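Tokens for chain A. Residues wanted.
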């Protein structure tokens, strides 16, 4: 399965420590995505997402929705 760059970015933001309640700027979101991918890699991001959906599906759904919206805005062309 091939992940798109947006999928990887969403998973990286999801796996980051950044919180939606902090109202992060696009710059902070881009920096968090880059940092997480550099630290744990694409596979590590996917593993963290899977773990959270397995352990806390009720919270993970909302976080992924936020991550998708935030990535769309932060990386808009």
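Reply:
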């Amino acid at each position: 399965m091939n992940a798109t760059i947006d999928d990887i970015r969403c998973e990286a933001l999801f796996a980051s420590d950044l919180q939606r309640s902090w109202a992060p700027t696009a710059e902070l979101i881009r920096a968090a995505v880059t940092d997480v991918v550099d630290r744990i890699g694409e596979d590590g991001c996917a593993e963290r997402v899977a773990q959270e959906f397995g352990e806390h599906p009720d919270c993970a759904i909302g976080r992924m929705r936020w991550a998708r919206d935030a990535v769309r805005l932060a990386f808009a062309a």
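The mean pLDDT is 95. The chain is about 75% helix and 0% strand.
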